[in-house]
Amino acid sequence: MINRTGLLLLSFCLLILLTTISVVKADDYNTIEKVLTELESGTTIPQTELIEKITYLKNQLSERDSSYYLRLQAIICWNYDVDDPKQRALAISFANKQLNNPFIQQSPEHHLDIQLCKAWFNQIDGKVTQALKEYDEIIQRAYQIESLKLIADGRSIRGAMYSFQGNFSLALEDLITAQHLYDNLGLNHWSQINLSDLATSYRRFGDPQTAIKYYKQLEARFIKLNDMDAATAMITEMAIAYEELGEYNKAIEYYQKSYEYWQKQGDIFSASTIAVNISGSLIKLNRITEAQEYLSQASPHITSKDEAFYSFMKLFEAEISLIDEKPSEALNALLEAKSAFNRVKNKRGLAQLSQIESQVYTSLGDWPKALQALQRYVQLHNELDAKMQSNRTTEMRTRFNTEQIETENKQLIELQKARELELHILEQNRYLQFTVIILAVIVILFVSLFAIKQVQKSKLLAVLALTDHLTKLPNRRQTYSEAEKHFSNNNSKLSLILFDADHFKKINDNFGHEIGDKVLFELANISNLMMRRADLVGRVGGEEFLIILPDTSLEQAIKIANRLVESIAKTDLSHLSPTLSISVSAGVAEKEQDASFTELLNRADTALYQAKTNGRNRAVFNTQQTDQ
C-alpha cells in the first residue's frame, strides 16, 4: 500500500507532467489562434499559402480541440473556389455533411456560420429563391443567439443580393445595418467589402456620383494594403457608375484598366466578365464591330451558370444581331438572356430585354408580340420607377432606425466580448484544472453581466424619456433642450420652422384616430427626409412639429418651409385611405434680437397663426421689424 508521502510524491510528479503538457499545448494553441484569426479576417492570401495553412490546421486539430475545430470547419467551407462549379458543388456537399454532424450541431453559432456558407454557394450556383429563404432563417436565428458577426455577415450578403435584384429599400436596410456592426466590431476588411456593396447600391439606386466617391476611397485603401485584386474591382465599379452617368468613353477607359489587369494575372474568367461590360458601352457608342470582338472573347468562358454576366452577354448579342438585321438570332439570344434574368430576378435587366424584344418583333412585322413586349417594358419600367420614388424615404428611415439601434449594437458587442472571454478562460482551464479560478471568473462574469444589464436598462430609459413614442422623433422636452443650446451660441445663425397639420381634427373624426396616428408618422418621415444631418425635427404637440435649423438664414429657412409645405400637399396617402389628403401650415422665424428661445419660438408661432389665418397650406415668416 502506498503511504501518504508516496501519494504526495506521485501527485507532485503528475502535477509537473500536466503543467509541462499544458505549456506545450499553450504554445501550440497560440500559433493555431494566430492562423485561425488570419484566415477569419478575410485578408487576401495566395492560394498555395492558403492551402498550406488549412492543411496545417487539419493536422493539428481534432474534435477534442472543440472551439478551434469548430472555427476550422467554417473556414474550410468558405474557402472553396467560388468561380469553379465543381468546387461550389464540393462546398455545398461539405456544408451538408457538417450540418448533420452532431458535434457541429452542439454549437449554434458555428452551425449557423456553415449554414450561411451553404446558402451563399447556393446563391452563386443560381438557386436564388432557396438562398434568400435560407438567409432569412439564418439572420433571424443569429439575432436570437446574439451573434453580431453572423448578423452582419448575413445582412451584408443578403443586402448585396437585394441590390443586384433592384430591391434597393431592403438592400439599404441590410447594408447600412451591416456597416454599423462591422465598424463597431472593428472588422475593417469586411467593413470595406460591405461599403463596396453599399456604394454599388447607391449606384443602382440612381446616385452614381456618391458611389464613385466611395469607390475612390476604397481603391486608395486597397492600394495602400497592396490588395490589387480588390483595387481593380473598385475600378470596375467606377466604370459601371460612369456608364450609368452616360459617360461611356470614360467607362471604357476604366473597364480597359480592369481588363488588362485580369489578363496580366491570367484570370481569364474575370477578364471575360469585363469584356461583356465593355461591349455594352461600345454598343451605346455604336462601335458595333469592337463590341462583337469583346463578346467573342468572352463567350467561351462564361456559361449559363454565371447568370449575372451570361444574361447581359446574351442581351448584348441580341442587340448586335438586331443591328445586323438578324432578328431570328436576336430572339434566340433574348430567350437565353430572359431565362438567366428570371433566375436571378433582375427586373432592371428584364426591362432592357423587353424593350429590345419589342424592336425585334417590330422588325419581323409581328405587331401583337411587339406590343406585348412593349407593354412588359412599360410595366417593368413603371415598377422600377415606383420603387425608386419610395427608396428615398426608405433610405432616410433606414438610416434613422440603424442610428437608433447603434447604441444597442455596442452593448451587444460588449456582451459578446464578455462571452468570448468566458469561453477562452474555460478552454484554458480545461487543461490546467484550476477550479477555484474558474469559479471566481464565473462570479465576476455574472456580476459584470448584471452591471451591463443595468447600464442597458438605464440607457434605454434615457432614450425613451426623450423620444416621442408615435413618431420616434425627439419629444417636446428634447427638442426644446436642443433648441436652447443652439440659441445660446451667439456666433451662429438659427432659424425655426413651426408647422402643424391643417384640419387634423377632421381627419380623426372622418377616418379614425388610428389613421390620424399614421398621418402623423408620415409627416414625421417626410420632414426628416427633407432635412440635413445638422437639422433636428421634433414633435412638440399633438399635430405640431418644430424644426431647428442651425446656421440657417431666414431666406434659406423660408425656402425649406415652402418645399416642406409643397411636398406634404403632394404626398399620396391613398395607401391609408383612398380619399385622404393632408396639408400643413408653417411659421418661420430667424434669431435676431430675441432675448430668449421662448421669444423666438413665439414669433414662429405668430407666423404659424398668420399662415392659418391666410388660408392654410402655406408658410409665413416673422421678423422683429415686420410681420409678413
Architecture overview:
This protein is mainly alpha-helical. Among the domains are: 73 residues, Serine Threonine Protein Phosphatase 5, Tetratricopeptide repeat (Alpha Horseshoe), CATH 1.25.40; 139 residues, Tetratricopeptide repeat domain (Serine Threonine Protein Phosphatase 5, Tetratricopeptide repeat, Alpha Horseshoe); 146 residues, 2-Layer Sandwich (Alpha-Beta Plaits), CATH 3.30.70. It has 26 helices and five strands. The chain has a five-stranded mixed beta sheet, sandwiched between helices. Helix 3 runs parallel beside helix 6 and helix 9 runs antiparallel to helix 10. 37% of the residues are buried. About 1% of the residues have low confidence. Its EC number is 2.7.7.65.
Brief characterization of the structure:
Helices cover 75% and strands 5% of the residues.
Primary descriptors:
628 residues; mainly alpha; Serine Threonine Protein Phosphatase 5, Tetratricopeptide repeat; Alpha-Beta Plaits; 5-stranded mixed sheet; 5 strands; 75% helix; globular; diguanylate cyclase activity; transmembrane helix; membrane
